[in-house]
Amino acid sequence: MAVFVSAPFRSTEVRLDGGSLKVQCEIVNQSPDSWSLENGWAAGYHLFDEPTGTLVVDGARQPLNLAPTEGRNLAMEIALPPEPGQYNICVSVMREHVAWFYNEGWPFLLIDVAVDHNGAPALLGWRIADKRSVARRRLLRSFRRAFTLPLESIWRNRNLIRTMVRRDVLSRYSGSFGGAFWAVLNPLMLMLTYFFVFGLVLRRHDTSPSVFALKFLAGMLPWLALSEAVGRSPFIMVEHRGFIKKLVFPVETLPVNLVASGLVTEFLGIVLFSIALLLLPRHLPLTVLYLPALVIPQILLTSGICWFLAALGVFVRDLAQINGYLLTIWFFLTPICYEESDLNKFPPLAHRVLTANPIYVLVRGYRSILLESRAPDWTALAWLTAASILVFFLGHAWFYKLRKSFADLI
Questions:
Q1: Which of 256, 301, 296, 299 is nearest to 159 (CA)?
Q2: Spatial separation of the C-alpha atoms in residues 240 and 250, rounded to whole Å
Q3: If you placed Cys at 44, which of 61, 232, 268, 304 could pair as Cys (CB 3.0 to 4.6 Å)?
Q4: Separation between Cα atoms, residue 22 and residue 193, nearest integer Å
Q5: 3-class DSSP string for 7-22
Q6: Mean pLDDT throughout 303-321?
Q7: Is 87 helix (H, G, I), strand (E, B) or coil?
Q8: What pTM value is reported for the model?
Q9: In the beta sheet, which residues pair with residue 156?
């Protein structure tokens, strides 16, 4: 087995010199076979993009001619990429057309470096590693990044998200006579249409139109935001194919833009609903202050679903067509346009499944705080929040895992 023997570690040196690394160490042949240039033995390095594990540079080789137990000093200069990011460098023994032996479990020199946005490199550390220790580190890093990367990405690109959401909302109505006013008219006309059908044409006679209208509109508020974002998510990557194929662009923000645009629509709906409450012989209750407790899990849930569908839509183009029907079924399985008591007509198992619907929990919560002056059901909301957090992180992990294939498929 080839190793970097322990004694020369004291003389091993890894240092920065301008935009490159200078590496000095000793390699000892502790295998029973001789290494020779004729047989393809050499030492070299691979430079990887640390977040994605993508090979960036397959470095130059230095030939090795070593008999068993013989060693030699290795001096190597490694040029670092000018692009900002974090990188791993694996310095290892290799044999041409056979293997890089760091992949075979042999010890190797692992160097961590970073390049900031000004192109300035930094040496983060180095150590002697093997395949097993690297696998453990990657597992721990993946577990940690699974929880930190989505939030870091959203926070780091918050200005970009804000700009693209504003552009998205305004571009929908550019060139029309109503302009941005359609951002108010669209949710209003949609809610009035549903109210006319279910509140007047198909209404139940034991409920007054005004009571039904308020219940219906309160239930539509979370549905407006979720359905708009989820409905557009399967084709959002194809719609922005130019960003994916030509630019270094944080594509994970595109589904988040849809969530934010949906929240703009919901905010306008809440404003209209509040005006309706003030015009009717009612008041805006103080329990409206509980609204953030409902909006936060709603954002997490919608983001996770949008990430999942956005990635899947790249591979299954029919999803954009199927998604509309699925949303329609989801809408009618949720007691938005009919009474919640109607769910009692279903068998017990179906009733439990329908009441576990996350949109049902949100609809019930919105009606409680806006119409009944009551706090939401905290038990149901706690379960919804836990499920939304899980969907949020799993959706991002799914998207992050598949994103490397987007440019090849779009």
A1: 256
A2: 12
A3: 61
A4: 70
A5: HHHHHCEEEEECCEEE
A6: 91
A7: strand
A8: 0.72
A9: none
